[in-house]
Design goal:
about 200 residues, Endonuclease Iii, domain 2
């Protein structure tokens, strides 16, 4: 615990600055963050962002799946599946964007997880955090977070079994966040930077 608080003291300003970047993101950039969060499962975040930068040059409303998959194949795992998710997200973007007016982070996260193909609760939470709409209400329970929570004795096992288990672990994470007085959005980036030695997305 002491080492975590020490790491936070060293990274606090950088983490807060990054979260402010997310909150100041322009609406027109939201779609890029959606793409990024569709790409990141089991893949390197930096490589996924490079793929997003290439996808920005493509008219995704008219693109073919093979064209998108070619861009993705050297940068992310499961490139064919993710190409399909991206094209479907592009088709449905106006509907998704309209839902983003909902200020209830939990309701919005749950809607995204249930209605955006390629999203689960983790990816939906990641997207909302990256566009400044998570409001310290939701957790991004990926592998590195779960390992850290297990190491901190917050949870007993570092795997999510089902939806209800996700919500239970999320609640434990929120309680832990309150206990150590580090907001959950900051704690997520802290764990990420602890592993990767940088504050990214």
């Amino acid at each position: 615990m002491d080492s975590l608080l020490k790491w936070y003291a060293e990274r606090k300003n950088q983490i807060k600055s990054r979260l402010n970047d997310f909150k100041s993101l322009k609406d027109k950039e939201y779609f890029n963050e959606l793409l990024f969060c569709l790409l990141t499962p089991q893949s390197n975040a930096q490589s996924c962002w490079k793929a997003v930068l290439e996808l920005k040059k493509v008219n995704l409303e008219k693109a073919k799946k093979t064209q998108v998959a070619d861009i993705l194949k050297s940068k992310t795992r499961f490139h064919n599946n993710k190409a399909g998710y991206i094209l479907e997200a592009a088709r449905n973007w106006n509907d998704i964007k309209e839902k983003l007016n909902n200020n209830n982070s939990i309701e919005l996260r749950n809607w995204l997880a249930e209605n955006v193909k390629g999203f689960g609760y983790k990816e939906a939470g990641h997207f909302l955090r990256n566009i400044g709409k998570s409001n310290n209400k939701i957790a991004i329970l990926d592998r590195h977070i779960l390992r850290n929570l297990k190491d901190m004795k917050v949870i007993e096992e570092d795997k999510i079994k089902n939806k209800n288990h996700y919500f239970k672990v999320e609640n434990n994470f929120l309680k832990f966040s309150n206990k150590i007085k580090i907001p959950i959005d900051e704690l997520d980036l802290l764990f990420w930077s602890k592993k990767n030695r940088e504050v990214f997305k």
